What does this fold into?
Amino acid sequence: MPSDCHVFARMLSRTVLAACLCSAALAGLPAHAGSVSYSYDALGRLANAVYSDASATTTITYSYDAAGNRTSVATTSP
It folds into this structure.
């Protein structure tokens, strides 16, 4: 993910409106008129991204190994 989108999201209290569609597009999700929220682990790595609109919420969860390498990405949606 380009760092400018990542930093922009963190600067806005880790929640951005879908007007900044770059994050949703990079996550492989279609553009929507909802919101995008990010949470980070104690080491500052992206732990969750939650994409919400009026009809659905999709959560993407990231896992890392002890060396900090991303080991899995899981997507859940209704």
Remarks:
- The chain has one domain: 3-76.
